[in-house]
Write a structure and sequence with these properties.
154 residues, binds coenzyme A
C-alpha cells in the first residue's frame, strides 16, 4: 500500500479561524497545560505574536489537501520544543503519529542546527505520550509540575 505524504504549509493569518475552532474545542483543550479556551481576541493576538517570533515555526499539516492538524516548534538554541494538535474530528486515525514522524523529517530538512527535540506532555495524556514514544522519544527524569518531558535526538 502506498501512503500519501503529509504536506506541511507555514501557517498564516488566513488560518486564524480554523486554528481558533480547533484550539477552542473541548477535546483539544482537555490535555492542554492551560485548559481554558481563549477568546477570539486572545487567540488572534497569540497567533500574531507567534507568526512574528523568529524562534517559532507553526505548520499546518494536510493530507490530500485536507487540513488535519497543527505542529509547532519553539526553538531555544539547538533544541526545539514540539507541540501538536490534531483536528478534533480526526482523532484515533493515526494522524498524530504521522504528523510527528513526518514533522521530524521536515525539521531535519529545514532546520539542520536542531539536535534535540523536546515534548512536554501532561502525564495523563496517554494518546500524546503514545505518539511521541512511537516516534522514539524517551521519557527524561525531569518533570515539570504534572508534565512528563520526552526527549529525542534529531
Ligand atoms: C494527542 C493527539 C495529537 C493524538 O492524535 P491522534 O491522531 O488521535 O493520534 P494517533 O491516532 O496517531 O495515535 C493515538 C494513540 O494513542 C492511543 N490511545 C488513545 N487513547 C488512549 C488512552 N486513553 N490510553 C492509551 N492509549 C490511548 C491510540 O490507541 C493510538 O495508539 P496506537 O496507534 O498504538 O493504537 C490528539 O489526541 C490531540 O490533538 N489531542 C489534543 C492536543 C494534545 O493533547 N496535544 C499534545 C500535547 S503536546
Amino acid at each position: 500500500m502506498i501512503c500519501s505524504k503529509i504536506e506541511f504549509h507555514y501557517i498564516t493569518v488566513l488560518d486564524t479561524e480554523l486554528l481558533f475552532q480547533w484550539q477552542s474545542n473541548p477535546k483539544t483543550r482537555h490535555y492542554f497545560r492551560d485548559p481554558k479556551a481563549p477568546t477570539v481576541e486572545e487567540h488572534t493576538h497569540w497567533l500574531q505574536q507567534k507568526l512574528t517570533d523568529k524562534n517559532c515555526v507553526l505548520l499546518l499539516a494536510y493530507d490530500k489537501g485536507i487540513p488535519i492538524g497543527c505542529l509547532r516548534f519553539d526553538f531555544s538554541n539547538v533544541e526545539a520544543e514540539i507541540s501538536i494538535y490534531v483536528a478534533p474530528d480526526l482523532y484515533g486515525q493515526g494522524y498524530g503519529s504521522r504528523i510527528i514522524s513526518e514533522g521530524i523529517e521536515w525539521i531535519q530538512m529545514h532546520h539542520q542546527q536542531i539536535t534535540t527535540l523536546k515534548a512536554i506532555v501532561l502525564e495523563e495524556n496517554k494518546p500524546s505520550i503514545n505518539i511521541f514514544t512511537k516516534n522514539e522519544f524517551i521519557q527524561s527524569e525531569t518533570k515539570i509540575n504534572n508534565c512528563l518531558v520526552l526527549i529525542r535526538q534529531c
